[in-house]
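thread from #wetlab-drylab

HS: before we spend reagent money on co-crystallization trials with zinc ion, can we at least see a predicted complex? here's what I'd submit
DV: go for it
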Amino acid sequence: MLDKQQTKRLIQVALLPSCIGIASHALSGLADETWKPFLEHILPAVSRSWLLLLVLLLCVVCCLLAILLWMRSYFDVRRDCDLLTERGFYRAKKTGDLYCGACAAVHRTTPLKRSLNGCMWECPFPDCNATYDRLASDAKPQDR
Ligand SMILES: [Zn+2]
């Protein structure tokens, strides 16, 4: 006898391949109807140099998309954090980590560190050395 969790897991394991199979069967028929005229009539009429140019153009577009996705996946303080204007530094939306506002102004990502006496936030970047007052509300729940 299967318990509720095992049944749920079995349904999840069986449902995904079933859905993929049904979708691929439906799309394969559609793809045949869509590509058939292209393969029979249009492709033979296009010269090889134009085909190579199209393939090259497609590769360039794919590379540009990959670069765009790669750039978008980078952590950006000004995009991925909230600016605490009254405090002068940034707080990450997902993690709650704090980042130096002075460094962010020059497009540098520098996480703040607690000072030795624990009363301040310090920027560890050598040319910055910005400090910010530390409040109890700044710390993440596990740091308090
Ligand atoms: Zn800094």
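DV: The first helix runs from residue 4 to 45.
HS: ok that's useful, forwarding to the group
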